[in-house]
Write a structure and sequence with these properties.
692 residues, Rossmann fold, four-stranded antiparallel β-sheet, 34% helix, 25% strand
């Protein structure tokens, strides 16, 4: 018989913690929530202070039975769910289900699953924080009131299976608004003049700046010709040379949002995948007996804080000094709490910086290794010295016309020796060479090239851009980003094209209906205020019933109006232009869970369905008859195959191209890498690269 029972959410976490605590402790997993609102009904009593009706989650009966059995044998029960609102709510539900006094010191929290952190947390158990529970309960009830009231109306008026939610509806509106900006965008013409200069044998580039010391725009070809007509030959005098030293500070360690953004940029991970792999690293990986067995490799990955413990800072300092030298040590700064950040725990960081990625490469899966390496490098770089750049700006004059050339080179790498933050925009060259130029020198312009440009519309949202915008505007919280992006795609409101969000016809229709009848649900300011109200509940400043009631009193009349006045919308199936091979009726495009597909218009008499095959303009290299088409695996990964399958079984993960290898006449395919697309032969060593 164990003296103590510890309950966590997952079996992986349970194994790790049990090993740290010893024989007196039995650690079991609740597998998430054991109680929740039932899916089949509203389960919120709006007439009685919005009292929720909780039931045992379907399929959790045996889990709860096992936990109750273990609880009866234990002298003391500890509830050790995750250190956030959701975890606090899970602990509260467990306390009620197992008869644990929530006012007893039964709650244990830790930010990392390491031996020291676990042992320390069990020295300081606390009571369940009811303010945290109330904040989570308020969110759950609020979302239930919105979703379970609006969704049935959408089912009746539009189509079955639709849903509406506070954060997801705002996200869809943001994507639709961006699409409208793109559609309404009117490009404006502008010009630039670039020149290639030569001094002795050295060449460098410069661009037109202005005339007589004043910056001047070039809106048209006429303005360009006026500037070119002012030039007196191709000799330019160097009027001024500005040299200065510029420091660049490292990025802060990861929050949930910045981790999702950087994993998208550098690893091509979707938000959902990032969180899944991070969860594995947090809960523990078996490093082998010599290295400590199952060990949590990173701190808790749902956080909006960039705070770092003193222990972690000191360990990083020791590592940097030993491996790079004292000059690479960063100055210790006190972290400021960001506005709106809950700051409940630390940033996402390695539990020990001494476990460098190289030492774990053979233990971790490829995805685990890549994400761990990203987290480790970002944290280590955040504790390092700024990089130092020598920058140089040269002013070149010809008859009052001024060109400028800029260059820079790294004087001291600092944190850049380990890691440089990614960006959604094109990177500027940090090492742009300029020769040794002095005032009064004369240089020649080899070429002077005018270039026409047009302003570009704002880009569509990638997952990373959308997460960043949601965070900046205060929409949702760290735990909501990935599920929200997943939901709006599963509902068919948006789709990803080239990793960028595009609203679907269905998404636009639902958004317009919500805008007309429930404007507050898709209003950014309203959503942000609601998040602030939930934070206020968590801080113990506001009563959760009051917040829900203020919302519902305005919401209820809108529901009644929508029920009566919302007109039914008929979404007609789009003809596909081909006939069903089974019954001869016309095939139509239909919207499914994973996007559009082909279906017979004679449904339900004929249930023939087919995927939409996208031809890539390449004849099948195997059978020489079919066309190569784009397909998707069960895990939604794109691959390429013959449209005559199963007669022809040609498949390729890499995209075939419509020409043969010049060396051996075999198939050429595209292999996409970080900074280039490489075309290579599937048979010989022929390769060609294209930078992007």
């Amino acid at each position: 018989m164990s003296d103590y029972l510890v309950i966590v959410e997952s079996p992986a976490k349970a194994k790790t913690i049990e090993r740290y605590l010893g024989k007196k402790y039995k650690v079991k997993a609740s597998m998430g929530h054991v109680r929740d609102l039932p899916k089949s009904q509203m389960a919120v009593d709006t007439e009685n202070n919005y009292t929720p009706k909780y039931i045992t989650v379907r399929g959790k009966g045996d889990v709860l039975k096992d936990l109750r059995k273990a609880a009866k044998k234990a002298k003391k029960i500890y509830l050790a769910a995750d250190p956030d609102r959701e975890g606090e709510a899970i602990a509260w539900h467990l306390a009620h289900s197992l008869g644990v006094d929530e006012n007893s010191e039964c709650r244990v929290v830790f930010n990392e699953i390491t031996k020291d952190a676990i042992k320390e947390s069990f020295k300081k158990p606390r009571t369940i924080d009811n303010d945290l529970v109330d904040a989570q309960q308020a969110r759950r009830i609020l979302d239930r009131l919105v979703g379970y009231n609006i969704s049935p109306i959408l089912w009746k008026k539009v189509k079955k299976g639709l849903s509406a939610g506070r954060v997801q509806s705002v996200s869809v509106k943001m994507i639709i608004d961006r699409e409208k900006e793109i559609e309404n965008f009117k490009p404006e013409e502008y010009w630039s003049i670039d020149a290639n200069f030569i001094k002795d044998k050295d060449t460098f580039e410069g661009s037109f700046y202005g005339v007589d010391g004043k910056k001047q725009e070039l809106p048209s070809e006429q303005s360009v010709n006026e500037i070119l007509s002012k030039l007196d030959g191709k000799s330019f005098t160097i009027d001024k040379v500005n040299k200065r030293e510029r420091k660049r500070n490292p990025a802060k360690p990861f929050t949930t949002s910045s981790l999702q953004q950087e994993a998208a940029r550098k690893l091509n991970f979707r938000a959902r995948k990032t969180m899944m792999v991070a969860q594995q690293l947090y809960e523990g990986i078996d490093l082998g007996k010599k290295s400590g067995g199952i060990t949590g490799l990173i701190t808790y990955m749902r956080t909006d804080s960039t705070r770092i413990s003193e222990t972690a800072k000191n360990e990083a300092k020791s590592y940097i000094e030993s491996n790079y030298g004292r000059e690479f040590l960063g100055q210790t700064k006190k972290e400021k709490k960001q506005d709106g950040a809950q700051d409940a725990h630390e940033a996402v960081r390695p539990t020990s910086v001494m476990r460098d990625p190289k030492s774990l490469k053979d233990i971790l899966s490829r995805d685990q290794f890549r994400l761990y390496k990203l987290i480790w490098e970002r944290f280590l770089a955040s504790q390092m010295a700024p990089s130092v750049m020598d920058t140089m700006t040269v002013h070149l004059l010809n008859n009052g016309v001024e060109f400028r050339a800029t260059g820079s080179k790294v004087k001291f790498k600092g944190f850049m020796k380990v890691y440089v933050e990614g960006t959604d925009d094109k990177k500027k060259d940090e090492n742009k060479f300029l020769p040794n130029l002095e005032e009064g020198m004369v240089v020649e312009a080899e070429e002077i090239n005018p270039n026409q440009h047009f302003t570009q519309p704002p880009p569509r949202y990638t997952e990373a851009r959308l997460v960043r915008t949601m965070e900046e505007q205060g929409i949702g919280r760290p735990s909501t980003y990935a599920p929200t992006l997943d939901t709006i795609q599963r509902r068919g409101y948006v789709k990803l094209d080239n990793r960028r969000f595009i609203p679907t016809e269905l998404g636009i229709i639902v958004n317009e209906l919500l805008e007309e009848f429930f404007p507050e649900i898709i209003d950014v300011d309203f959503t942000v205020k609601m998040e602030d109200d939930l934070d206020s509940i968590e801080d113990g400043k506001t009563d959760w019933v009051k917040i829900i009631d203020e919302f519902y009193q305005d919401f209820q009349p809108r529901l009644e109006k929508a029920e009566q006045e919302m007109e039914k919308v008929e979404i007609k199936d789009e003809p596909a232009g081909i006939d069903c091979e089974n019954c001869g009726h016309e095939m139509v495009y239909k919207m499914g869970r994973y996007g559009k597909f082909l279906a017979c218009s004679n449904f339900p008499e004929c249930r023939n369905t087919k995927p939409i095959l996208k031809k890539i303009g390449v004849t099948c290299p195997k059978c020489k008859e079919g066309d190569v088409v784009e397909r998707k695996s069960k895990k939604r990964r794109v691959f390429y195959g013959c449209d005559r399958y199963p007669e022809c079984d040609f498949v390729s993960w890499d995209k075939p191209i419509a020409r043969s290898c010049p060396k051996c006449e075999s198939l050429l395919v595209e292999k996409k890498k970080k900074k280039e697309t490489q075309i290579q032969c599937t048979n010989c060593d022929y390769k060609e690269s294209e930078q992007h």
